[in-house]
Amino acid sequence: MKRCLVMKFGGATVADIDKIKHCIKKISPKFNEHSIIIVVSAMNDTTNQLRDLISQISSENECALEKHSGNLNSIKKYSNIASDLILSSGETISAGVFSLCLQDCGYKSIPLCGWQLPIVTDDNYGDAEIQQISMKYIKELINQKTIPVVAGFQGISPSKNITTLGESSSDLTAVAIAAELNADCYIYKNVSGVFTCDPNSNSGKKIDSLSYENMEIASKHGAKVVCYKAVKYAKKHNVKIFVESAFQKESGTMISNNFSQKNIVTSQQAFIIPLENHDPIPSEHIFTFGKWCIFSNQEEFENYALNNNKNISKQKYMKITLIHPSKIAKDHFLNIAKKYSEIYSCMDSYSWICIEKKYASNLEKDLHESFVK
Ligand SMILES: Nc1ncnc2c1ncn2[C@@H]1O[C@H](COP(=O)(O)OP(=O)(O)O)[C@@H](O)[C@H]1O
Ligand SMILES: N[C@@H](CC(=O)OP(=O)(O)O)C(=O)O
After folding, report:
1. Which of 3, 34, 145, 251 is deepest in the core (most CB within 10 A)?
2. pLDDT tens-digit readout, 221-273
3. What does the radius of gyration of the chain's CA atoms come to, in whole angstroms?
4. How far is the CA of 66 from the centre of ligand 1 (A)?
5. Please, which residues have CB within 8 angstroms of residue 235's CB and are 6 or more apart in sequence?
6. Is the peptide bond before 118 cis (omega within 30 degrees of 0)?
7. pLDDT below 50 — which residues of the chain?
């Protein structure tokens, strides 16, 4: 059997037929060497429209609930089951449409819902955890040189209800299938990789390679580019993720254990100090990667600081960069902040700090070590 490759296309990349046909161009160079498995998200913002639809009904449900004074938990459970069925339908359509487009381009293809594999989850509707996946059907299709197009985001509970895996979790479907097949996982987006900041709102720089740990932290703190549950799963099962543009040729970002030295500022050249209760950081603020910003080197940082926040002394800022929430470090952060009072007042309530290695005390080093382990 050829080596398997999972290719996941996000909602923005499958927004219409023209875009899907562009996505398909990404498949042909890989098709001869690999057995391809496609995973798709719902077209564009279909899932949000479905969420809106559900919320219109749910508010009426609450009134009905009060009228009938039924058992709140069981009524909630029934409405969650129905909501997940509705929410999952965006991916069902998308899998069918993508598969039809593949057929139109001359490939043999079959669309699959999560339950057809099946991807068995717990019954935590709306944010279900994967418990077991069978690759039997996918392997049969691969052997027949047929490309399976799997609807992302979907699972099935032990009681045979459709579940969804959580917001943006088609990435998780893709990574979980890749883990089962010992395959790499390509995630195609409308951006060309993971950037130091959201490329649509700031002048970030593309990162060539990134550790699971850094991506996990960034995703957890709001970087929308790869779903947090997917990164966690990839780390656990050692699945290499490549984030690339669906429409451009340039190389993207690799997320793995083999990351290049220059891109790991937060764990190698600097110390992450965990903090608690940080406030949301305005997008124009210097530290945005979701809520994080990673710089490859001092010069990059200085340029960014200079271009984006002229009020802040770049010299002092060199001592400050980043963050993760945790109880132990809060007092410690406040002490550091006092040392750099000018910066602290600039930062106001932003509890984000990162200390370059050369400035770090032993305590800071210990905190860092305990965090990155
Ligand atoms: N650090 C980051 N790097 C790249 N994209 C980011 C980052 N933070 C936020 N984003 C945003 O994440 C979005 C995800 O890409 P998109 O293709 O829209 O997602 P989807 O796969 O869900 O359709 C991008 O449009 C980009 O603006
Ligand atoms: N459509 C689902 C799942 C998903 O992963 O979507 P996307 O890959 O477009 O973020 C959602 O919006 O949550």
Report:
1. 34
2. 566 789 999 999 999 999 999 999 999 989 999 999 875 433 333 333 333 33
3. 23
4. 41
5. 212, 213, 216
6. yes
7. 260-298, 300, 309-334, 336-359, 364, 367-368, 370-373
Distances in Å between the Cα of 2 and the Cα atoms of 33, 142, 155, 330 are 7, 9, 27, 51
**Whose CA is closest to atom 6 on ligand 1?**
198
User: By the 8 A CB rule, do 121 and 165 touch?
Assistant: yes
Sheet holding 119-121, edge to edge: 130-133, 119-121, 154-156, 162-164
Amino acid 322: pLDDT: 38
- Residue 206 is classified by DSSP as B
**For residue 188, what are the β-bridge partners?**
9, 244
Beta strands, E only, 113-231: 119-121, 130-133, 147-151, 154-156, 162-164, 184-189, 209-211
Ligand 1, atom nearest to 11 Cα: 23
Residue 167 alpha carbon to ligand 2 centre in Å:
6
> Domains in the chain, ordered, with CATH?
3-190 (3.40.1160.10), 261-372 (no CATH)
Ligand 2 centroid to Cα of residue 285, in Å, is 27
Is the CB of residue 320 less than 8 Å from the CB of residue 290? no
Instruction: Please give the pLDDT value at position 366.
Output: 53
